[in-house]
Amino acid sequence: PKQIHEIKDFLLTARRKDARSVKIKRSKDIVKFKVRCSKYLYTLCVFDQEKADKLKQSLPPGSLIIFIKTHRSRLLELCHTLNHLHLDFYIDTLHVLLLHVFRFECARPLKMKK
User: Fold this and answer.
1) Most confident option among 33-42, 79-88, 96-105
2) Residue 41's domain spans which residues?
3) Is residue 114 part of a domain?
4) Could you tell me the CA-to-CA distances from 8 to 1, 4, 5, 14, 95 in Å, in that order?
5) Which of 29, 58, 85, 87 sits at a 20 to 30 Å CA gap from 13?
6) Same structural domain for residues 88 and 56?
7) Terminal-residue alpha carbon distance, the chain
8) Span 2-43, pLDDT tens digits
9) Ramachandran region of residue 110, left (φ > 0), alpha (ψ -120 to 50) or beta?
């Protein structure tokens, strides 16, 4: 794996003939763009959400783009959607339920002793 520090270099790499796919991984404060080429996986880390959105729009057309979401971002996206639907009465109950689901999914499995 190699890290790219400039957006321009990343776009040139994404436009290469051997670039197979672009993965976009969003987390709380960072967006990672990963382009798979024949030899290496190149990664660009973007800390500004607006720059990340502009970069996503300027990716070459026809390339395979895969979005990877973390559990936290999925839950936050769902809560954000429900807030827009003005379901304030149900938000608190659902928020507590989602937090329990999030904790359950993130918990490590217990190791059984033989």
Assistant:
1) 33-42
2) 2-68
3) no
4) 18, 9, 9, 10, 40
5) 29
6) no
7) 39
8) 999 999 999 999 999 999 999 999 888 899 999 999 999 999
9) beta
